[in-house]
Each structure stands twice: as C-alpha cells, then as structure tokens.
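Holo prediction — phosphoenolpyruvate.
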Amino acid sequence: MRTPIIAGNWKMFTVVEEAKALVLALKDLVKDVTNVEVVVCPPFISLLAVKDVLAGSRIGLGAQNVYWEKNGAFTGEISAPMLKSVGCTYVIIGHSERRTYFGETDETVNKRVFAALSEGLKPIVCVGETLEERESGQTFDVIKRQIVGGLANLSVEQMASVVIAYEPVWAIGTGKTATPAQAQEVHAFIRKLLNDIFGQTTAEATRIQYGGSVKPDNATELMSQPDIDGALVGGASLKADSFEKIIKF
Ligand code: PEP
C-alpha cells in the first residue's frame, strides 16, 4: 500500500513573510491529516523560516532544486548539505521549468539525484512531455528517456527514497489537466519501466505523483486512478484552503 504524497511547489512566489503566513494557515488546516504525506517546497530563502513555523507538524519541507557539488566556487548554487542543514527532507529535481529555462538535462538530473541521496534527501524527480511531443506520438519515448537517464545507476536501495512526478508540460500552469485516463496511461507506463529496471517490488512501492493544473475539483478523480499516488501542485498550493482541499481529496 503506497501512502499518497502531495507536495506544493511554490515556484518563485512568496517573500518570507508571505511564506510564513501561508504555512501557518496550512499547518492548522491539515493538522488532523495522517493518511497523506504533505510536503511544501518554498523558495530557498524561506526554507528556514518555514521550517520554524512547521515545528510540531507532520508537514515535510522540500526545496525546488539542488546543485550536485557539496560546496565550492559555484556562485548562486545551493548544495544538498545546505538543504539538509535547514531541515529539508525532500527536493524537487528536473522540474520542466528548470529543463526549459535553465538547461536541465537528464544527465544533470541524475547528478542532482545522487547528490540529494548522498545527504539523505528524498528526490522528487519530474518527467513529462511537451505538447509537441505528445501530438507527434513521442510521449512514451520521452518519458522513457527521462526515467532511464534521470535514474541511471541507482540501486534498488536508493530508489526506495525516490518519488516520481509525472507532469505533462502542456498541463503545467495552463489550466489544462490531463484526463484521469491520459494520466493513468503514463503512470502505468512509468511503473512498467520501473519494473523492468528495478524489479517488481520497487515498481510497486514507488510513489508516482501527477502534476499539472491539479485543483480541488479534479484532485479526487485523478487520485483515484490505480497508479496515481498523489500530486505535485503548483498554483493551487499557494492558497492554504485550495491546497487543503486537494490534500483532503
Ligand atoms: C508544478 O509547478 O509542478 C505544477 C504542476 O504547477 P501547476 O499546478 O500550477 O500546473
């Protein structure tokens, strides 16, 4: 039985005071939730403040990216030991916005995954096809390339800490959600790939989130698909009440 995981990707929204207020409201709204793992991923600058507000709650803390070196002359980057030091347990890796705007590749995703794991952080590895790729029939090829490349050389033990997020790029921030059937089809494909690479036990245990315009009114139907184990939520995680409704799908 896989415990659903619902993570909020706040992207580049909220200054520190707004981040604190958002998580304070959320903490109260979801204080009785025990059957879903909840994670918030604020911008780097708010991680420490959010961690303080989260004291005593079950909500986990995640970052939105991590660099693969531990330290050094890499101006502007943040390493896995730094994330760990502020209380992160999760880190989003390979989000499509990072692939599109910041040159992220399957190879750099893989380096970041290893860096996160080496500090005990759990990677949320994002994969997903663009509209052009879907319309030209390349969805499964793209997902396969991203999964095989992003998770290359991971052991079964390491894979136990990894969460996958299937996020069709055409559904992110667009208001267009994949239909539950479209999402389920890709999730089942990912699980089959995991089975081929890591074996059945790992494939059945790995949580695969759906992401892309998840809202309170479509969360239940998406999450009731057999291979969808939660959601990675952007826009709707920036309001405590809409995120709460998704968490309580
Ligand atoms: C995301 O940022 O991962 C995301 C899915 O965004 P949205 O929910 O706004 O589409």
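READOUT: The mean pLDDT is 97.
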